[in-house]
Amino acid sequence: MRRFRAQDATPALCLALTLCAVFTASAQDVNFLSRIKELGLQNIDGKIPAYYSVGHREHAERLQSRIEDMNTYFQAHLGVQANVVLALLDSTGWTDVTGEPYGITMVIGKPRVIFMPATSDNPTFGLIRARQEAIPPETLKLFLQDNHIPFESAVSQFVDLVGFHELGHVLTLNFGIDPQDRFLSEFLASYWSYAYISERQPEWKRVFDLFGRPSKIRPQHTSLEDFEHLYMRVDDPGWYHGMFEAHIREIYPKLGLGFLSDLRKEFPLSGDPLAYTLPKRRLQVGEIIERLDKIAPGFQAWADTFNSAPAPAVLQPSGAGPAPSSKSPH
Predict the structure, then answer these.
(1) What is the pLDDT of residue 219?
(2) What is the distance of C-alpha 308 from the center of its chain?
(3) If pLDDT is split at 50, 70 and 90, which confidence band does 66 have?
(4) What are phi and psi of 108, to 5 degrees?
(5) Which domains can be identified in the chain, with CATH numbers?
(6) Mean pLDDT computed over 94-120
(7) Is the pLDDT of residue 305 over 80?
(8) CA distances from 329 to 176, 216, 223, 252, 259 (A)
(9) Is the Cβ–Cβ distance between 103 and 118 less than 8 Å?
(10) Quick one: which of 302, 325, 282, 315 has its CA closest to 66?
(11) 187 near 169, Cβ under 8 Å?
């Protein structure tokens, strides 16, 4: 199988990412749940209602169960949860609901809907495939052998985790943290996800530890300022997320859930979380990093790697063992 590389990103993938950035900025108040119901999509009742394209019920049930468990965990430990709806859709269903081409995983609308891809012809998969060459070959070989799965199935499992990153966006605001800018918003969303799987889904944590690293090829845009100004229009958003995830893997064992409580004190949110938009007069990236470094020493050194140093050395996965027992959703 030919490996996907960052420089192999097709115009279609780049267009999908650009359209997603524009779309998510303009559709936060849209009632997508109403559209979903009008289309008569199959659904599963529960604390987290789940809707899905034909043929993907088992996958939807698995995701619904874990989203509900993530809410249960954080309600018990931090007194917060996220009321969302899950929409697991194929390309046709995605376009029927959103009116847009198959895009990357996102949380959007009122009420909040987490849109997750049901099939691998989605750009989220391309962003994760780009990390293959950054994984030490022997580490990847042993992971696939231990779990008796092909690489594409491992990619599918990590794409599922992206949906829990989206849940993290909602938890950040509901918990009362004002992320101030895009980089901290994305970093925290992944922090919530990693905190949950570290405590409740050890098999899934090993998948995160395998893929939670930047793609090997350093892209054109690398600074946190680039990410703030361009957001999903940077040439490789997956590289940034990999950088965030690698640092989260390093600091979570030391800081745990206390990091989130500290951030709520440092960056308190005022107002309705559902009505949140980035403040017009928000902190500059450098000031945010300075404050973060006081809470979690080492943040400044990590932030400096975005601007000048080559991509940091990859982290080895912590431990070995089987990945989640799930079938590929495609």
Answers:
(1) 85
(2) 25
(3) very high
(4) -160, 160
(5) 6-307 (1.10.390)
(6) 96
(7) yes
(8) 34, 27, 34, 29, 34
(9) no
(10) 325
(11) no
